[in-house]
């Protein structure tokens, strides 16, 4: 690189008090206004964090080592940074910001680190969990729009643990997906599959995030739940989960995911359903009516809430690809 | 874990507006007041960052992937998280906070990711760089206290790149340390060694941090410098570096390390010095008088500046092992 091409402000003698504005200055050459704004806020918060805590070099090095360990335990089937984001409530917050829900629609919740992209596409009625120790549970749900119209051909990704509380990917011996599938809603907006009753389980706590939870005296448990993810062109992507009411961890989820509207009571399969879906009468039954928001409505809501929030912060902003950036002209 | 032992606040239905206080609540069981305060600030800043940017799920995932890559490129000899901290000015800030300097003392600067713990202990006068292409440079320095008293037996860690701008650890073929040594000041507080004239070099930019610099349109160069680290019981640990004046990157250091007081002009070895130190007359000469601060003075200054900063922030704090924590009683 030709040093004569260095076209940036003069930076020297940076101190506790002037470093932040100077880092902004050198980053201000970023041509993408959104990335520039994100970096500006990130640097400000990182610096304010250090200034407000008077962070010591030892503490900083502890942080560097912790983040390095978090990165190094990640693999194709383990995402410890998502786990870290989950246990500090950041994941739930980002989902809430990005997927605002009008009153009548299904609320979202944390994705968690266990969704995979290799689940088999299955027909309605298929068995997604092959754990012989799991308690059978028929899942019989519908998916509609906010006007109550059934939505067909919605891609429904579902995943849950086995009866021991482990996802398939947590087994070193995993040969392929289990406890997960990709289904499609039928012409009536209905989808159904044979699963097992979810159980509470600890998030992976043998790594750095588990160590952090221990020093914070927090438990790593999540209440019993089943994950659902919905995709249909024209509708806002919905990541959610259903939680069993009265689970011992219902009000202390390690990743803050439980919402009242997502709590369910399991029912029992009646004679008619048993015949119709080929399961035993009296078996556990999970039913829920999901409601998707149109892309358009979600966008309108996301943008109006973003601008409202920016106004409340006293920032003069405009939207750029639907996301706020400073309004400088 | 026995769920009946779950002794934490009820958490459910968390939203953009109430998640932060609830994460604080669940973290408040942490028995270490300092860690509790650090976490409280960290969570607040992470959440405010997401709220102020209206961070999208895609952007969050980009961040998760970026941090994972940063962790995964780290190795025994590469520390990409330190590099990341360096290029956002956090490293310089933390050093400034942790090692406040009274007027008469030597300023600190960034450690950088290339210090190692395997440098050989060498006698004064030894040759620390064996690069035949480097321009020889005699380094002849002293180390004193703030009253001007020479300090003997100070452990002095020095490190620099070779003539191509690479540290020994950047070579896959590295067999042992080169361009680095651990020296000791003599009875007169003097230490000297044979090095090479430092050259400007890019920080490692083949990884995620380099990619970030590129999208920000920042160059990865550091001006020519030599690192010094001082240790002596009773004196505040000093991490610093000397920079060659008029380097093309003097005012645009990628990691914000340059300070006016650390700029040096290289001299020339005179006949007397040539004889005395066994180098050629006319060779390049780097001299500097370092001044260490006593532990006691550094502690006093660090604590008073911490309390002053807390007061300016309007926080009611007390010191705990010399670092601020909320004063709750």
UniProtKB/TrEMBL annotation, chains A, B:
Sequence ranges assigned to domain Intradiol ring-cleavage dioxygenases in this UniProt record: 112-292
InterPro entries from the UniProt entry: 1_2-HQD/HQD (IPR039390), Catechol_dOase_N (IPR007535), Intradiol_dOase_C (IPR000627), Intradiol_dOase_core (IPR015889), Intradiol_RC_Dioxygenase (IPR050770)
Originating species: Aplosporella prunicola CBS 121167
Cofactor needs: Fe(3+)
Protein's recorded name: Intradiol ring-cleavage dioxygenases domain-containing protein
Top-level lineage group: Eukaryota
A GO term, aspect molecular function: catechol 1,2-dioxygenase activity
Pfam families registered for this protein in UniProt: Dioxygenase_C (PF00775), Dioxygenase_N (PF04444)
Every Catechol dioxygenase N-terminal domain range: 32-105
Family to which the UniProt record says this protein belongs: Belongs to the intradiol ring-cleavage dioxygenase family.
GO biological process, one term: catechol-containing compound metabolic process
Alphabetical keyword list: Dioxygenase, Iron, Metal-binding, Oxidoreductase
